[in-house]
Write a structure and sequence with these properties.
single chain, about 400 residues, two-stranded antiparallel sheet, 24 helices
Length: about 400
Amino acid sequence: MSVHGLRARLTREDVQRLTDTNDPESRAMAARKFCARIAEQGLSDADRTAGEAILGVLADDAAEMVRRALAVTLQRCPHLPEAVARKLAADLDSIALPVIEGSPVLSDEDLIEIIRHAAPNRQVAVAKRISVSKDVVREIVTHGVSEAVGTAAANDGARFDAGSYALTFERFSAEPEVLERFIDRSRLPLEVTERLIAAISDAAIERLVSRHALPPQLAVELAEGARERATVDLVDQAGLSPDPRRFVQQLQLNSRLTPSLILRALFRGHMAFFEYAVAELANVDHAKAWMLIHDAGPLGLDAVFQRTGLPARILPAIRAAISAYHSIELGDGGPADQIRFRRILTERVFTQFQGAPEADLNYCLARLEADEALIETAPAEPVVLKAS
């Protein structure tokens, strides 16, 4: 078989090593280099065809290390021939698992076949993929072992629909450790969050309520101690809620939209919640409240504030917080940056304005101490300060 088209990229010694039947280690090294070239962009059609033929030969090599070199090097390559990908996915675990977990060439049909008939560790490899379609997730939830289902539950790239969520709760109602893996997702539907509260351990509930927004009424109930197994900080939930308008309305309905809650949320940087709270209390729409708070200068803030019925003594603190908020911007916006943002905001508010209520001051300082524990190993100053 000719490799003339690829010879400019491979040395004569590389080509000889590929066909050296007496030295599998040299073949593996040459195969790794060859596969790296195949993975590159810009090969001609003729080179690609010749290369794919050689990959087929390497996939049949008697030496495990050669086949593993092929699998590991090309596990995420879109140019791996489908037939070769399937062959590698059916090989020994050391060869199959990287391909099952990473290859974009494997189809949903291939992955479903693995879920239905392969060993548990291969089901887990499917569940770890960067992207797992709704159909494949449904197969994992239906036929997968608990480890595979838990892995998919924690994987943001695994696309759970309502049916798959429901089936997971049904199958694993007696295995809360599987259901708790949902907490590791970056987002959860509110109805799933509510179901988890009733199904998981107390320690897991603490993680859940600190990471995910609760349905508004449930958040209020837990904050009031209406349920035995958890308590909720409504300030945190103010920042997590994907629907701040509804959350504010629920708080108002339950007489929980207090000046202290509004002030603490603002000091923690939950500006959208503050805007909707002002809009609710002032009986104006959010767009108008936003304009008066941010775009109309101090007179606009004063005007909308007077309509809220909030005590006049907290207006200077609110004005200081909004000014500080606009003087800071996030870096990349990740969790560590958000924590630093809140720290700088709180420090600026209490440096520039000394009249904040003591209880709210103590609350924010206590929360800052908890935040500091989360950023001990982070870089020093990723937050950019804008000119005041």
